[in-house]
Design goal:
By secondary structure, the protein is mainly alpha-helical. Among the domains are: about 130 residues, 3-Layer(aba) Sandwich (Rossmann fold), CATH 3.40.50.300; about 55 residues. It has 35 helices and five strands. A five-stranded parallel beta sheet has the order 2-3-4-1-5, with helices on both faces. Helix 4 links the parallel strand 2 and strand 3. The longest helix has 18 residues. The two termini are about 55 Å apart. About 50% of the residues are buried. InterPro entries: Sig_transdc_resp-reg_C-effctor, TPR-like_helical_dom_sf, Tscrpt_reg_LuxR_C, WH-like_DNA-bd_sf.
């Protein structure tokens, strides 16, 4: 049971480790590091269960092997090829064998991967990836003790165990074995009064130490201030993203202002904007000067902005450092929403000494802001920082917003391993808040659309459409997704459905005057015009969008609009203009580190056959005809045969005939193989 608990604690590390070995392929050297008692061997066993289909050779090393030249090499297979080498305690390897193993694995033509446990960081420089196992937190220690002993242990004893063992599972096991039975139920430990536990839970919740707050809350009898307990339990559930449980405790918060302020946050998580406004109005009437009322008013600015479509007046004077930081967070979020990413970046920076938990809210929107500004490397670091903080503070509510941005950047920068890890974490239960499910679905759709995974993009888009049909989320600037879904529908040949989606978006968004929305919505609108034969109208729509977006500090949007425009121009025979536009898009993508998109621009230019890049296309090594080049490019983007036929005014059978010839010329058998071959030029 205890090993199952540790697998649960380390589940994300296990998944990422398995992905690194699987996706990394030959040449991967993955180290699982941690001191004796960190359960690194248990983690290794769990990782290996995910890799059961791969040929493996496992060896165990001991301290005396370190001084035996060739000891490790003698235990390895000969020849050292086509296998996964698994080593327990690699720190005990002799130097000569270690050099041989790592040199072989890290060679450019390697067919060997290595996964090993190590007792510390001394060998990290030899690895391609390192998974460092941390000690258990106080809350995790409580869960681990319960899994080992089969009983709940008083928090006072958990604190002692954690202090004596440092949170390392092996040391905890040793200590528990030596403890008398009576100690496990609290014997010999000075216990706090229930009221002290409730006060401590309240303090910890205020400091956003939510997992530890729950430990103290569980020590409280049900009849001790039930209103306060219910509010705290609801608040903990809310931050963990447990919607039903949060509603159970926060739906009727009672008269206390700080309880009612938590209910305002609940409405925000549900995206119930009228509910937020009603609760804030009532709080201002009943307790106008309370700190909790000010907190609610600050959160209520989001509802005011969404319902009015305008930036609200930020005429609130914070009474505490926490509310000052909270106001900066909301100000930054709204600035990003209303096309002012420069102000957003300024307001969303959190400073040393500020609340790390509100910092997660800031990081969620700061990473998005940096994405829009094209500062993708920094945005990726902010995503990881936010994810680490949210996990440490029990704030799973905010993870999808971070993963939405992280998955996009990873996919477009060619880090397929990280993108897959992020996307796996975007899988939510039905018990999720809208503040979770919306960015999760948006992230899945956008990544699938960018990777030409048309079926997945269509499924995610349909899920979004169903979501917004039951809850009004379509407030200009807050959750823009319709342009990507409409473009996905176009690629699937569903032109009328795409027209319906983008027409609805235009009706809602145009009055806002937001340049980013107008320009992004113009992409599917212009594409539909081209599809329906209105070439002049399509060109005008695209040109207006390009002119508008190039006047903004939003290169992420600029590059995408230019890329889509260049593709349409090329397909309609305007190759010179297409090459100019695609060259501009590629330069912006290059500045953002979007290597995948740079290559896709280059592939489009090769097919276009203009200038230096096009010279490759005119004498392409595969001998494709111009029409075959067009068909191959469309199929590589994810278009179906029928969609290609509509795009090029051919019959489906003609497309099938050409595709067969293309496969033969390129020496591939599948669409994925075609995509990879074209990407290589």
């Amino acid at each position: 049971m205890s090993s199952q608990y540790l697998r649960h604690i380390h589940r994300r590390r296990l998944h990422r480790a398995a992905l690194r070995v699987t996706a990394g392929g030959p040449g991967t050297v993955l180290l699982l590091t941690g001191p004796e008692g960190s359960d690194r061997r248990g983690v290794l066993e769990s990782v290996l269960t995910h890799l059961a289909g791969r040929p493996q050779h496992r060896v165990a090393l001991f301290p005396w092997n370190r001084d035996e030249p060739g000891a490790l090499a003698a235990l390895l297979p000969t020849p050292l090829a086509d296998t996964l080498i698994v080593v327990d305690d690699l720190q005990n390897a002799d130097e000569r064998s270690l050099r041989q193993l790592i040199s072989t694995a890290r060679h450019p033509e390697s067919t060997v991967s290595v996964i090993a446990t190590v007792d510390g960081p001394d060998l990290d420089h030899l690895a391609t990836d390192v998974v460092a196992l941390p000690p258990l937190t106080l809350a995790e220690t409580s869960g681990y003790v319960r899994s080992v002993t089969g009983r709940s242990v008083p928090v006072e004893l958990v604190e002692q165990i954690h202090a004596e063992t440092g949170g390392w599972p092996g040391a905890i096991n040793t200590l528990l074995t030596a403890l008398p039975e009576g100690r496990l139920v609290g014997g010999g430990v000075e216990k706090r009064e229930p009221a002290e536990h409730l006060a401590r839970a309240r303090e910890l919740a205020a400091d956003f130490e939510l997992p530890t707050a729950e430990l103290h809350l569980d020590e409280c009898p049900p009849d001790l201030d039930p209103a306060e307990q219910n509010s705290l339990r609801g608040y903990l559930a809310l931050n963990r993203g447990l919607r039903r449980r949060a509603h159970e405790y926060l739906a009727d918060p009672g008269p206390a202002p700080h309880h009612r302020a938590r209910s305002v946050l609940l409405s925000l998580a549900d995206w119930d904007l009228p509910g937020m406004q009603g609760k804030v109005t009532a709080l201002r009437a009943d307790a106008p000067s309370d700190t909790a009322t000010l907190e609610a008013r600050i959160l209520g600015l989001v509802a005011d902005a969404a319902c009015s479509g305008r930036m609200p007046a930020l005429d609130i004077t914070p009474d505490t450092a926490l509310n000052r930081q909270r106001l900066d967070m909301v100000h930054g979020w709204l600035a990003l929403t209303f096309d002012d990413p420069l102000t957003a970046r300024e307001r969303l920076q959190h400073l040393p000494g500020q609340s790390p938990a509100i910092g997660v809210w800031q990081d969620a929107w700061l990473s998005r802001t940096l994405y829009v500004l094209g500062e993708w490397t920094t945005a990726a670091r902010v995503v990881e920082r936010g994810l680490a903080t949210s996990e440490a503070h029990g704030m799973e509510l905010l993870e999808p917003m971070l993963l939405w941005t992280g998955s996009q950047i990873a996919a477009m920068q060619g880090d397929d391993l990280l993108a897959a890890d992020y996307l796996q974490r975007l899988t939510l239960s039905e018990d999720a808040f809208l503040l979770q499910s919306l960015p999760a679905a948006m992230g899945r759709m956008i990544v699938a659309a960018n990777s030409a995974d048309l079926p997945s993009a269509l499924r995610a888009g349909a899920l979004l459409a169903r979501t917004v049909s039951s809850t009004d989320t379509q407030h200009p600037g807050f959750w823009p997704w319709e342009d990507v879904y409409a473009q996905t529908l176009i690629r699937a040949g569903r032109i009328d459905a795409a027209d319906e989606v983008i027409t609805g978006a235009e009706e809602r968004h145009t009055p806002s005057g937001l340049v980013s929305l107008t320009a992004k919505n113009a992409v599917p609108r212009a594409t539909i015009q081209f599809q329906r034969g209105d070439v002049t109208g399509g060109l005008q729509t695209f040109e207006k969008a390009v002119e508008a977006i190039l006047g903004t500090p939003m290169p992420a949007y600029q590059s995408r609009i230019l890329f889509e425009y260049g593709k349409v121009l090329r397909r309609h025979g305007r190759r010179q203009r297409a090459d100019e536009i695609l060259s501009h898009a590629a330069e912006i993508f290059r500045q953002m580190g979007a290597s995948v998109m740079v290559e896709r621009c280059a592939a489009e230019r090769r097919v276009g056959g203009v200038g230096g890049v096009g010279a490759v296309a005119r004498t392409n090594p595969h001998g494709l005809t111009p029409q075959e080049e067009q068909i191959a490019a469309l199929v590589a983007e994810g278009a179906t045969n029928s969609a290609v036929a509509r795009e090029l005014s051919l019959s489906t059978k003609t497309v099938e005939y050409h595709l067969t010839r293309i496969y033969r010329k390129l020496g591939v058998r599948t669409r994925q193989g075609l995509r990879e071959e074209l990407a290589q030029g």
